[in-house]
Fold this sequence. Notes:
The strands form two sheets. The chain has a six-stranded antiparallel sheet. It has a two-stranded antiparallel ribbon with strand order 1-2. It is built from nine helices and eight strands. The chain is 43% helix and 14% strand. It has helices spanning 2-19, 35-43, 49-57, 61-68, 82-100, 108-118, 137-149, 157-163, 217-222, and strands spanning 129-130, 134-135, 165-167, 177-180, 189-195, 198-201, 210-213, 223-228. The N and C termini lie far apart (121 Å).
Amino acid sequence: xxxxxxxxxxxxxxxxxxxxxVIADTVTVPQGLDQSAALLLxxxxxxxxxxxxxxxxxxxxTSLIASAAPVATNAPVAVSDDATADDDDDSLVAAATxxxxxxxxxxxxxxxLAFAMKLRDIRYHRGGRAPSTGFDxxxxxxxxxxHSIGLDLPTNSASQFLAGLKVKRNEMKTGDLVFFxxxxxxxxxxxxxxxxxxxxxxxxxxxxxxxxSLNEAYWAKHFVGAKRPEGIAKI
Length: 235
């Protein structure tokens, strides 16, 4: 009877050990067992729940270090430059707004004239808007204002005349626009006033950008008046 209990106990222990394969290193045989029972008990694996729990609950130190270490990568780290871009955009917008509001710095008229004079001798071209193609009168004026002081003017002489502020002839300043009626009653020609009655413009087909005088008979006859672009109205 005693042997049957031991055999049953051994079989139960064997089943548990098969499910959880954690075994004890040594087994101490209780005193009082006969030889066959002792041999059966020592040959069977013994379930060690405490050992299994410890091994499953406590991670290995090496694995802890590996999991804590950052993963190395060769991919570049993206650095946001949104703040810089926003600052640059704000500066550009502020500068453009100041110019359009008539707050261009005091040297703008001089810069405008110096730039215009560099374009002398570029040929006239109807509809021309750049040195590479040649200029018509409004294309020349618009190009000079845009590339010297960043002021965007309307695209033709009639609209430039309507957009400006009226200026008396004896109050004209460098950079003011002078307008003419060369064909009928509509404004059809424009130039940039220099000083002392002189202005620079792109006259007509077969000619180039040059300086002329308002006192010359042809220009005096067709002169309409002067306008001051709002962007330079306060300087």
